[in-house]
Amino acid sequence: MTRTIDCPCGHNLQGANDEELVKLAGQHIEEHHPDMERTDEQLRARVAADARDA
């Protein structure tokens, strides 16, 4: 099963589990939104609230 989450910019991230989504979200922010600083805890909270099964 795959987990997925959408960035407000429209990009969809997909990973094997929530921890992978946290890692992918961090990479996405670094590459595409460098002015947006997020901690791992903030990313985990967002994934926990918004990720869904794909």
Report on this model:
- With 54 residues, this protein is of the alpha+beta class.
- The chain has one domain.
- The chain is 48% helix and 19% strand.
- It has helices at residues 18-32, 40-50; strands at 3-6, 12-15, 52-53.
- Strands 2-1-3 form a three-stranded antiparallel β-sheet, covered by helices on one side.
- A hairpin with a 5-residue loop joins β1 (3-6) and β2 (12-15).
* Range of helix content: 40-55%
Distance linking N and C termini: 7 Å
Strand order of the largest sheet: 2-1-3
Unreliable spans are none
Radius of gyration: 10 Å
The number of helical segments is 2
Shape: globular
List the helices and strands and how they pair.
Layout: E1 3-6, E2 12-15, H1 18-32, H2 40-50, E3 52-53
Antiparallel strand pairs: 1-2, 1-3
Helix pairs in contact: 1-2
